Amino acid sequence: MSICIGCMNEKGDSKECPHCGYVENAQPKNPVYLNPGTVLNNRFIIGSVIAQGGFGITYIGYDNTLKQKIAIKEYYPLNFVQRKEILVIPYSESVEKEYKRGKARFIEEARNLARFSELPGVAGIRDCIEANGTAYIIMQFLDGITLDDYIKQNNNIIPYQSAVKILSPIMDALSRIHKAGIIHREINPDNIFITNDSQVKLIGFSEASLPMGREKNLSILLNTGYTPEEEYRKSGNQGPWTDVYALTATFYRMITGKVPPNPIERLMNDTLIIPDNLPDNVKLALKKGMAIHASERFEKIEDLRSVLLNKEYKPNVKQKTT
Fold first, then answer.
1. What pLDDT is attached to residue 217?
2. pLDDT value of residue 215
């Protein structure tokens, strides 16, 4: 069988893949990317790049043992490293300590997420390996589109009933993840994926998905409109309510077609508009889910879900600090 390195589908003897158009032996578009065809641990084949963020590069891949597509996420913090052939090397001794600390957190992320691989709303973790001076998370491959693309394909508006249904698996998964002491911190429409068979998965776990209580590096890219104000402050108190804000902001984007205003700007002049034509429970969900101050927000994802489903909601009388 001849596999296309670009999409990991059967392409026959053709040099140009009939599925994705990838041409055999093509060089990567960016010199920091691994060359397609690179093999890890004599098992996992690196393909084309799916996504790149500030802390990692995700490739489509192929598992030679299980004979199936996978996704491979490489720890590659852009501000700290350079690539020399296949090796990942810190720029200098001054950043090497931080690089190694980040790599340890990256591996810890894989271990944390592997505990939740059975949840329908999370992409499964298959393995984690160290090689080439860095680390790689081997993940379930998802074929489909991001929620952001899905919204655009639906004329930028999703009926609130459909939006709640789409986000339900994410809320279920976050409920379990939060109880284990882990928060995502980067929920937005680009980090929610809808597969071709209509499964909804939360992706984009990165260095940000550290256990609660750990210091968060402010160099993590903030998502304007979806990031609550406490994430902009090194001393900001973060917890499940942090993900509540981001998920509610995502819901707002789905049902209004608009990205919510930046929470820092809202501190000075709150221009958030909640449409009047929504049911009272949905308006309450938007108001409390995107409250600027954490002390006024839903404390748990279960509270947000209860209100969206129009079930009884009993606020916690114990207020948290901001």
1. 46
2. 44
